[in-house]
Design brief:
This protein is mainly α and 116 residues long. The chain is built from five helices and two strands; from the N terminus they run ααβααβα. The longest helix is centred in the middle third of the chain and has 19 residues.
Length: 116
């Protein structure tokens, strides 16, 4: 992934995920989510990009489940993010390249909607 992209939580990233979660999860919705997170336009969701998605999902799920409690900071949930990313890669990265292709991302979208 290119170095121009900061790993700090970005409001636009959270909004992209929230929009997807509020959508019917159709192909156009997945394409918009893909575009939002394939930051370097490599055609793959790579490790750092996946970590970003998972952290934002935790943040959104936390706000939904416990709106009166502050959301955890990234360093507080980094271990959880790492475990979830490993599990996602095990299930989604069927090509075993260590990155998620656009076709594999469709399965990831289904996974996200199922969890939500």
């Amino acid at each position: 992934m290119g170095t121009a992209y900061s790993l700090k939580a970005k409001k636009v990233d959270k909004e992209a995920l929230q929009t997807f979660l509020d959508s019917p999860g159709e192909d156009a919705d997945l394409k918009a989510l893909w575009t939002a997170f394939d930051k370097d336009a490599s055609g793959y969701i790579e490790d750092a990009e996946l970590h970003q998605i998972i952290y934002h999902l935790i943040w959104i799920f936390w706000k939904y489940a416990t709106p009166s409690k502050p959301c955890p900071k990234r360093d507080q949930v980094q271990g959880v993010v790492e475990v979830i990313c490993q599990n996602v890669m095990h299930e989604i990265d069927v090509s075993h390249r260590g990155r998620i292709s656009r076709a594999e991302f469709d399965v990831f979208g289904e996974y996200i909607m199922k969890q939500w």
